[in-house]
Amino acid sequence: MVHHIGAQDALYLEDTYLTSVDTSVTATGYDEVGGTWVAVRHNIFHPQGGGQPADRGWLGECEVVPVRHAATGLVMLQGAGLDGLSEGDVVRARVDADLRLLHAALHTAGHLVEAAGRPEGWTLAGRNHFPGQARVELTPPEAGTRPADAEEREKAADRLRAFVAAAIADDLPVTAEHDDEGRRVVRLGDMHAAPCGGTHVRSLADLREVTISAVKLKKGRIRVSYTASHRPSR
């Protein structure tokens, strides 16, 4: 049930580093089990999607989790203590900044790993940017080009590591723009571009500890597992 549908700005797509804002309630409602949710006019919360986990944060003093509302497209905030809020109420929204930067680093590093696979002839088949389980799954152009044995996979992993290290050393800028079809496209300099609705670092030098831990062959796909973190704010 939705009490009112108002406009909402997706500020999380415009500025990864904006982690607090004063805003107003633009919609309220109840989920299927009767829990209260609210949506705010200036939304800084990234909902789960595209392989990236949801932000965590607070609306006033209430801890909230963002979820995209299928019927309206709004990002709604769920949590205890929201019952007293009504449309038009002014509230302070805050995102857990450390978690936001970790998610942004993992997501950007995932794009970088995908870019590193392209010279190998591999194309993106799936991705998971969750902390502790981040991986990119890639498809080789044909079965004969798969790194079938452990030595081949380790050589491939070394090539990926060298590619990633060089791109970070070059400090390529990370930018977003909309294409002619209205899709948001994220670019790593002129090296890589992909449609994406996630949060990202400003430039590749913001990444640290990008480690490719394993390259495995699973059901015809090449699975590249990795870790990453965001360097201290500069």
Topology:
Layout: E1 9-10, H1 11-14, E2 20-30, E3 36-40, E4 42-43, E5 57-59, E6 62-68, E7 75-78, E8 90-95, H2 97-117, E9 123-128, E10 135-139, H3 150-169, E11 174-178, E12 184-188, E13 192-195, E14 207-218, E15 221-230
Parallel strand pairs: 1-4
Antiparallel strand pairs: 2-3, 2-8, 3-7, 5-6, 5-8, 6-7, 9-10, 10-15, 11-12, 12-13, 14-15
Helix pairs in contact: 2-3
Quick summary:
This protein is α+β, with helices and mostly antiparallel strands and 234 residues long.
Entry keywords:
234 residues, alpha+beta, 6-stranded antiparallel beta barrel
Quaternary state reads: single chain
Average pLDDT figure: 91
Strand content: 35-45%
Number of strands: 15
Order of helices and strands: EHEEEEEEEHEEHEEEEE
Low-confidence stretches: none
- State the shape: elongated
Cα gyration radius (Å): 20 Å
Structure description:
The strands form 4 sheets. The chain has a 6-stranded antiparallel barrel. A 4-stranded antiparallel sheet has the order 9-10-15-14. A hairpin with a 6-residue loop joins strand 6 and strand 7 (75-78). The N and C termini lie far apart (44 Å). It is of the alpha+beta class and 234 residues long. Helices cover 19% and strands 37% of the residues. The longest helix has 21 residues, at 97-117. It contains 3 helices and 15 strands.
